[in-house]
Amino acid sequence: MKQERVILGIDPGTNIMGYGLIHQKGRNVTFLSLGVIKLSKYNNQPLKLKIIFERTLGLIDEYKPDELSIESPFYGKNVQSMLKLGRAQGVAMAAALYRSVPIFEYTPKKIKQSITGNGNASKEQVAAMLVTLLSLKDPPEYLDSTDALAAAVCHFFQKSNVNEGEIYSGWKQFIVKNPDRAK
Predict the structure, then answer these.
(1) CA-to-CA distance for 96 and 116, rounded, in angstroms?
(2) How far is residue 151's CA from residue 68's CA, in Å, rounded to a whole number?
(3) Is 182 a residue whose pLDDT tops 90?
(4) What secondary structure does DSSP assign to 112-171, as a single string?
(5) Residue 168's pLDDT is what?
(6) Considering only 49-58, 141-150, 156-165, which range has the smallest mean pLDDT?
(7) What is the pLDDT of residue 138?
């Protein structure tokens, strides 16, 4: 595992796309940035995809992430929504590929499990846990941004687990094994 890296997390969407960035140094992780890209004012689907591509490239060029962690689309009943979401995810992934940034994909359930210890946690529970664990000053306005940040933190845990032999099922187990790091 790299001793130092920046991870960009993305929660794809065609109305609001969330992003979050963390910096890992050794076994410590710190918050860099989070936000959303608002797309609802555009009614042209191809234009939304172009903006997602350009803004993702902009984030990559600004923060120089070593890896991209992206939430995979969940299966829903609305086929049109799934198609739009898949396109948004694909365009964000294409931007990362264009800049040779490796991509890692996680299901919403896996991300929630990694952050809260509960794969069925609410978006609010995930956000509250991230505020506490990353010492964020205020809860972010949009849960899409904390979902993206959660994708980045989930990836940090997954990559740390694989390469260091430590397996954590979520924050709770991590804190039990590392009490000095949860201050």
Answers:
(1) 27
(2) 9
(3) no
(4) HHHHHS-TT--HHHHHHHHHHHTT-SS--S-HHHHHHHHHHHHHHHHHHHHHHS---SSH
(5) 41
(6) 156-165
(7) 82
Q: Which residue has the tokens 């997602």?
A: 52
Nearest 5°: CA angle at 149, between 110 and 140?
A: 125
- For the chain, the average pLDDT equals 88
Query: Could you tell me the residue range of the domain that residue 110 belongs to?
Result: 4-181
Tell me how many domains the chain contains. Answer: 1
Give CA 26 to chain center in angstroms: 20
CA atoms of 114 and 173, how far apart (whole Å): 10
Residue where the block lists tokens 């931007």: 95
**Res. 174: pLDDT tops 60:** no
Q: Tokens 């997390």: give the residue.
A: 9
d(CA 98, CA 83): 22
- State the pLDDT at residue 159: 77
User: Which residues are the active-site residues?
Assistant: 11, 71, 144
111-132 pLDDT, tens digit per residue, is 999 999 999 999 999 999 999 9
Contacts of residue 16, defined as CB under 8 A and 6 or more positions apart, other chains included, come to: 36, 37, 38, 39, 40, 142, 144
- The CATH number of the domain holding residue 44 is 3.30.420.10
CB 123 within 8 A of CB 18: no
Residues 130, 54: Cα–Cα separation, whole Å: 27
